[in-house]
Design a protein that fits this description.
- This protein is an alpha/beta fold.
- The chain has helices at residues 2-8, 33-36, 44-54, 69-74, 96-104, 145-149, 161-178; strands spanning 26-30, 42-43, 59-62, 81-85, 107-111, 113-116, 119-123, 128-131, 135-139, 153-158.
- It has a single domain (26-178), classed as 2-Layer Sandwich (Endonuclease, Chain A).
- The protein is built from seven helices and ten strands.
- The protein has an eight-stranded mixed beta sheet with strand order 2-1-10-9-8-3-4-5, sandwiched between helices. Strands 6-7 form a two-stranded antiparallel ribbon.
Length: 182
């Protein structure tokens, strides 16, 4: 089955203008090794690391799950980072990885989840990276070792101004008015 998928999914990735900073617009994937052989697309971990290295303005991150892999990616950044995430367990009030990151780097963290009468009403599920002048990633990958290296994850890298403006406005509204600090 994996061979059939690999044989079918051999797109030529359309590259954006060579002078534009950041990853090229197009497909971004994390692939299990059985699928990875010969598939031509930008790798999620490479795109994320390049994004954090090349960003020249605030980085905005929606990601429900992060692990210590996030810390190594954040270390490559030279700009402030704003993160909206969720809490996986009701008994903890913050994400230890993100809180530690915020002590070492210019990382601000907010949590998005809603409970009423002991029932979860909603939580963050979106996975988005955004920075002015660089573009945005929208896809399925979290900031975890599993998502970046082992799972089948698919996303797209975007540079369309209207989409980027909408993502920025949504993120800033959620970060500033809806999500809460630890």
């Amino acid at each position: 089955m994996w061979r059939r998928f690999r044989d079918w999914a051999q797109p030529e990735i359309r590259k954006g203008p060579g002078s534009a900073p950041g990853p090229s617009p197009g497909l971004v994937v994390s692939l299990p090794r059985i699928i990875d052989a010969g598939f031509r697309a930008e790798k999620t971990e490479d795109v994320f690391r390049k994004f954090f290295r090349e960003a020249t303005s605030v980085i905005r991150v929606f990601s429900p799950y992060v692990d210590p892999t996030f810390t190594s990616i954040v270390a490559e950044s030279r700009v402030p980072i704003r993160v909206v995430t969720t809490l996986r367990k009701a008994r903890i009030r913050s994400n230890p990885v993100l809180e530690r990151c915020s002590m070492m780097y210019p990382v601000s963290v907010r949590y998005l989840h809603e409970k009423r009468n002991g029932s979860q009403m909603f939580q963050l599920h979106a996975k988005v990276l955004h920075s002015e002048g660089l573009g945005a990633y929208v896809g399925s990958a979290n900031f975890t070792d599993t998502s970046l290296r082992y799972n089948l994850e698919v996303g797209v890298w975007l540079r369309e101004k209207e989409v980027l403006d909408g993502l920025r406005e949504l993120f800033d509204h959620v970060f500033d008015h809806v999500a809460e600090p630890a």
